[in-house]
Amino acid sequence: MVTQHTKDMVNPEFIDAVVKYTSQKESKSATNVSCILGYLCDNFDGLPVEAKQIREHHWKPYVEKLFNRKILKGAEKSFTGLLELNNFEANGKNVSRDYEEYVLLSGDFDERVFLSENAEVEIGTPLKMNQLEVDVTSRRNFEVWHLQSLLARLKSVPSEGLVAIFKECKANLQEDIEKRVNELGEQFSVKYTQ
């Protein structure tokens, strides 16, 4: 990613060192310097080939995907303009929203909670299990919620495969099973409402 005024984003002495380094290595003018990977790898024990491979095969395709999904604004071909003032805020919000959606869908842990200034207070420390007191009502409510979440994605009728298995049996098992399920459902409702 590049911006027109890179010197405003990074320490000018660092940029001057990158320009000097790149000019010597690749005989480019200071205006054409857009990648600092070589400088960073050589001066901070990095592997340039691996860094460039990650950039080309992982980073660029992912950024292209974000452009295709209209999450990022800027010049798609050159990856410029992403950090320009008119795109920066929208890009930041869109990437953050996309990441939150990913975390929610994957059920993964959001590491950003550790970045807060009050992370130590907000996150706290884990409690010992013997300190947790759960009353009967809370436990029942949790169990009902858990049961509902398990059943929410299921249909209330037997699948075609199960019906085919029932048809292969000599006795009519489907009616017996449906009767038993209804009885258990009524028992559950009676016990739950007590």
Automatic annotation (TrEMBL):
GO terms for molecular function: RNA polymerase II transcription regulatory region sequence-specific DNA binding. Pfam families: RB_A. It comes from the Eukaryota. GO terms for cellular component: chromatin; nucleus; transcription regulator complex. Residues 145-194 form the Retinoblastoma-associated protein A-box domain. GO terms for biological process: cell differentiation; negative regulation of G1/S transition of mitotic cell cycle; regulation of transcription by RNA polymerase II. PANTHER family: RE32990P-RELATED, RETINOBLASTOMA-ASSOCIATED PROTEIN RB -RELATED. This is Retinoblastoma 1. It comes from Paramuricea clavata (Red gorgonian).
